[in-house]
């Protein structure tokens, strides 16, 4: 009986998630060039700020790209991950978001836009535009970003860590990952393509050290990881190390390229969620294709980013356009 109730509870959570994200899942109200009349220089302003930032702090590219994902997967792409809380009870302070960096860069972009076009460009759109521009700055693809999102004014600490509907863990298996993407109206191809964003950025040792030292609770290593890679990582990451980090894509973690897929197929994906992509025929096939001649990864990445950017958006008279991204009007 208890097991049945648990299954029922999970089913109800799934229904609620579908209702939450399907309401505006198709991105009605979004379009390329939304600010063409109201703030014609909007994208130029964003691009200029990001160009200046990347010139001095290129390591922020990964976190700023990841911020769009963390925002869209909780309550949709509404800028809720940016909101502060006097009691640290907003999404920003939830464990999965503690590693995010670059909030001050979003504030810097917003300040420049407010100076040019007060009360026009939403923080949610800024996050989406910044994600595109940091990708381009790291030699990645360019895509047309649909804009017209409005900002939400609800941000809850519990949402990113809620089972089923929260952010998928770095230790998620392929079934959980596919379910998480599906709840947002995204398919398996979107999952593997967007995972390719791990070509830039870093991860703290604490996110994968169980694979090195205590995979099943018996002091063992993850048998799916290349033992030579494990040995190399152990030189950098000691047990229970909370401060050291490793590159997600060693050798080119500041450059957007296809080498992430090469590493994963060689069983050198840093996170369990990376390695899990080998456990599904569709994701595995894509990883092989992404590293071969005629790869469509760059084009596909732009398409999947647009798809994700339509998740649960607020448009029209919904939500608000925040004057400051860290607080509601």
From TrEMBL:
A biological process term (GO) from this entry: hydrogen peroxide catabolic process
Positions annotated to bind Ca(2+) 1: 71, 76, 78, 80, 91
Cofactor requirements of the protein: Ca(2+); heme b
Cystine bridges: 39-117, 72-77, 123-325, 205-237
Site (Transition state stabilizer): 66
MF-aspect GO terms: heme binding; lactoperoxidase activity; metal ion binding; peroxidase activity
Co-factor binding comment: Binds 2 calcium ions per subunit.
Residue sites binding Ca(2+) 2 per the record: 199, 249, 257
Subcellular location as annotated: Secreted
Leader peptide range in chain numbering: 1-27
Enzyme class: oxidoreductase
Keyword check for Amino-acid biosynthesis: no
Reaction(s) the record says it catalyses: 2 a phenolic donor + H2O2 = 2 a phenolic radical donor + 2 H2O
EC number: 1.11.1.7
Active site: 70 (proton acceptor)
Main subcellular localisation: secreted
Keywords attached to this entry: Calcium, Disulfide bond, Glycoprotein, Heme, Hydrogen peroxide, Iron, Metal-binding, Oxidoreductase, Peroxidase, Secreted, Signal
Described function: Removal of H(2)O(2), oxidation of toxic reductants, biosynthesis and degradation of lignin, suberization, auxin catabolism, response to environmental stresses such as wounding, pathogen attack and oxidative stress. These functions might be dependent on each isozyme/isoform in each plant tissue.
The family this protein is said to belong to: Belongs to the peroxidase family. Ascorbate peroxidase subfamily.
Name of the protein described by the UniProt record: Peroxidase
Organism whose genome encodes this protein: Lactuca sativa (Garden lettuce)
């Amino acid at each position: 009986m208890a097991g049945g109730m648990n299954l029922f509870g999970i089913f109800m959570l799934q229904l609620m998630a579908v209702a939450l994200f399907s309401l505006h899942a198709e991105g009605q109200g979004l379009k390329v060039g939304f600010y063409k009349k109201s703030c014609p220089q909007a994208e130029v302003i964003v691009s200029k700020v990001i160009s200046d930032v990347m010139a001095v702090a290129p390591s922020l590219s990964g976190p700023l790209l990841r911020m769009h994902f963390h925002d869209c997967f909780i309550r949709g792409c509404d800028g809720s991950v940016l909101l502060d809380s006097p009691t640290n009870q907003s999404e920003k302070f939830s464990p999965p978001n503690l590693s995010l960096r670059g909030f001050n860069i979003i504030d810097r972009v917003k300040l420049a836009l407010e100076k040019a076009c007060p009360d026009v460009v939403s923080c949610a759109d800024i996050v989406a535009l910044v994600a595109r521009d940091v990708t381009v700055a790291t030699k990645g693809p360019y895509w047309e970003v649909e804009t017209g999102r409005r900002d939400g004014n609800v941000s809850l600490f519990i949402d990113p860590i809620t089972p089923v509907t929260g952010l998928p863990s770095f230790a998620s298996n392929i079934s959980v990952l596919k379910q998480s993407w599906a709840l947002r109206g995204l398919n398996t191809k979107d999952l593997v393509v967007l995972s390719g964003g791990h070509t830039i950025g870093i991860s703290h040792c604490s996110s994968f050290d169980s694979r090195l030292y205590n995979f099943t609770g018996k002091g063992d290593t993850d048998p799916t990881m290349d033992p030579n890679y494990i040995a190399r990582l152990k030189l950098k990451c000691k047990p229970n190390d909370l401060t050291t980090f490793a590159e997600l894509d060693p050798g080119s973690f500041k450059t957007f390229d296809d080498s992430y897929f090469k590493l994963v197929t060689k069983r050198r994906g840093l996170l369990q969620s990376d390695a899990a992509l080998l456990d599904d025929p569709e994701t595995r096939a894509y990883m092989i294709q992404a590293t071969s001649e005629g790869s469509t990864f760059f084009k596909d990445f732009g398409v999947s980013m647009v798809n994700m950017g339509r998740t649960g958006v607020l448009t029209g008279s919904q939500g608000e356009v925040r004057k400051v991204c860290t607080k509601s009007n």
